[in-house]
């Protein structure tokens, strides 16, 4: 396929802007505490060697959510391809940190090279990927075309573009077709996005509905020492968790907990705001609700009569999920789109959610069908859902069994996806 004029214009612009973009990106990473050696990965200078002469499979993601969503897929592909190496690239220090904490075997992380010839040439020459898998909306024209020109098989998974991005690409159909032609397979999150990709001139015979990778994610990490410490402090008290809450939701959660305490006076709430920097704001809301609380970031532990434990730290969500059988998942009582319910059921808990879950609609539809998720709209509904969970043992067992069944289904889906990618990207190892 011939490159359209707009692609040539893009290439010319990147030549002019690359030095300034490189300076700005390296400076930004350094200010965020990234060592100089690693910050220069954005210029294509690798900080680690390519291991061996075997297959190397490159995954490219944008930031935290996308990066973490592929770790389980990498681990599964690694089981099928025991001699393969994996590379994951992303652009933010937070994603690098979290990936490092959960990185699968035989996998390294690097910061993504800038979308310019020099950085990309150095990157591709060093890593020599045997296949490349791009995640969600990472459609950098030069990165895609230069990788393609090396005859590297490429796939796009979890494809998802916002309405604004789709409209922008629709205004440049020749460029969209040129960029999307590099992929041997485009897997979307749902049928609507599959049609959107075809409308953007992706080759229709290479587009298919896949599954939401975030609904196949690896279990959140836990710290046994922290769990033992919190359990000892709680002394057998029952608790529920309200996780990833946003402004306007904590008030509803706290009102529900006040109702619950009237009938279940020993019940504790672990409240986990989505953004820990809102800790002081959320603490003020707890105090205004007349509820006693302890704060995780102050190294406090819940006392015998403490109503709320404010878990205002990063990277500990897995601990809080492991402490309970029922989790209210925020971002859903307000039109935010919801958060990942699969992480909850993987931890062995059932999910309660508000109605606004567009970002995980397919996942929630499947969970609802199995009975692994319940939905509420206000404080009264939330209080009743939590109370029913603890007061009705048969319903509780059914919800937890449904959650376990859903996790098994997702595990099977992950295995199918891994084998499909290995086949289409021609990665199967030769038999001996």
From TrEMBL:
<dbReference type="Pfam" id="PF04413">
    <property type="entry name" value="Glycos_transf_N"/>
</dbReference>
<comment type="similarity">
    <text>Belongs to the glycosyltransferase group 1 family.</text>
</comment>
<comment type="function">
    <text>Involved in lipopolysaccharide (LPS) biosynthesis. Catalyzes the transfer of 3-deoxy-D-manno-octulosonate (Kdo) residue(s) from CMP-Kdo to lipid IV(A), the tetraacyldisaccharide-1,4'-bisphosphate precursor of lipid A.</text>
</comment>
<feature type="domain" description="3-deoxy-D-manno-octulosonic-acid transferase N-terminal">
    <location>
        <begin position="40"/>
        <end position="215"/>
    </location>
</feature>
<comment type="pathway">
    <text>Bacterial outer membrane biogenesis; LPS core biosynthesis.</text>
</comment>
<feature type="transmembrane region" description="Helical">
    <location>
        <begin position="6"/>
        <end position="24"/>
    </location>
</feature>
<keyword id="KW-0812">Transmembrane</keyword>
<keyword id="KW-1003">Cell membrane</keyword>
<dbReference type="InterPro" id="IPR039901">
    <property type="entry name" value="Kdotransferase"/>
</dbReference>
<keyword id="KW-1133">Transmembrane helix</keyword>
<keyword id="KW-0448">Lipopolysaccharide biosynthesis</keyword>
<dbReference type="InterPro" id="IPR007507">
    <property type="entry name" value="Glycos_transf_N"/>
</dbReference>
<dbReference type="InterPro" id="IPR038107">
    <property type="entry name" value="Glycos_transf_N_sf"/>
</dbReference>
<keyword id="KW-0808">Transferase</keyword>
<keyword id="KW-0472">Membrane</keyword>
<protein>
    <recommendedName>
        <fullName>3-deoxy-D-manno-octulosonic acid transferase</fullName>
        <ecNumber>2.4.99.12</ecNumber>
    </recommendedName>
</protein>
<dbReference type="GO" id="GO:0016740">
    <property type="term" value="F:transferase activity"/>
</dbReference>
């Amino acid at each position: 396929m011939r490159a359209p004029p707009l692609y040539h214009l893009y290439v010319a612009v990147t030549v002019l802007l690359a030095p300034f973009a490189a300076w700005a990106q390296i400076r930004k990473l350094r200010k965020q505490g990234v060592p100089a050696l690693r910050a220069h990965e954005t210029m294509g200078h690798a900080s680690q060697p390519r291991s061996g002469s075997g297959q190397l499979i490159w995954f490219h993601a944008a930031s935290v959510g996308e990066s973490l969503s592929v770790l389980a897929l990498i681990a599964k592909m690694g089981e099928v391809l025991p001699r393969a190496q994996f590379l994951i690239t992303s652009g933010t220090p937070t994603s690098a940190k979290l990936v490092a904490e959960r990185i699968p075997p035989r996998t390294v992380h690097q910061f993504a090279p800038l979308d310019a010839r020099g950085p990309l040439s150095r990157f591709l020459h060093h890593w020599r990927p045997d296949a490349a898998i791009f995640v969600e909306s990472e459609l950098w024209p030069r990165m895609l075309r230069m990788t393609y020109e090396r005859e590297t098989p490429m796939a796009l998974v979890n494809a998802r573009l916002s309405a604004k991005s789709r409209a922008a690409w629709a205004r440049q159909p020749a460029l969209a077709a040129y960029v999307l032609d590099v992929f041997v397979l485009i897997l979307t999150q749902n049928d609507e996005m599959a049609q959107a990709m075809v409308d953007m001139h992706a080759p229709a015979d290479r587009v298919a509905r896949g599954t939401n990778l975030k609904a196949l994610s690896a279990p959140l990490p836990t710290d046994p020492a922290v769990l033992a410490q919190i359990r000892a402090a709680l002394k057998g008290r029952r608790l529920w968790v309200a996780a990833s809450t946003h402004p306007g939701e904590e008030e509803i959660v706290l009102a529900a907990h006040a109702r619950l305490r009237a009938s279940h006076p020993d019940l504790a709430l672990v409240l986990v705001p989505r953004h820990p920097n809102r800790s002081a704001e959320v603490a003020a809301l707890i105090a205004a609700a007349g509820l006693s609380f302890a704060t995780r970031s102050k190294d406090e532990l819940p006392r015998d009569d403490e109503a709320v434990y404010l878990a205002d730290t990063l990277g500990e969500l897995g601990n809080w999920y492991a402490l309970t059988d029922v989790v209210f998942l925020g971002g859903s009582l307000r039109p935010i789109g919801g958060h990942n319910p699969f992480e909850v059921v993987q931890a062995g808990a059932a999910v309660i959610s508000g109605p606004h879950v567009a970002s995980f609609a397919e996942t929630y539809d499947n969970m609802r069908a199995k009975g692994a998720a319940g939905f509420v709209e206000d404080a009264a509904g939330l209080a009743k859902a939590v109370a029913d969970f603890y007061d009705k043992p048969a319903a509780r067992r059914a919800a937890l069994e449904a959650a376990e069944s859903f996790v098994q289904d997702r595990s099977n889906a992950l295995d199918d996806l891994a084998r499909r990618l290995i086949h289409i990207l021609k990665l199967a190892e030769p038999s001996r």
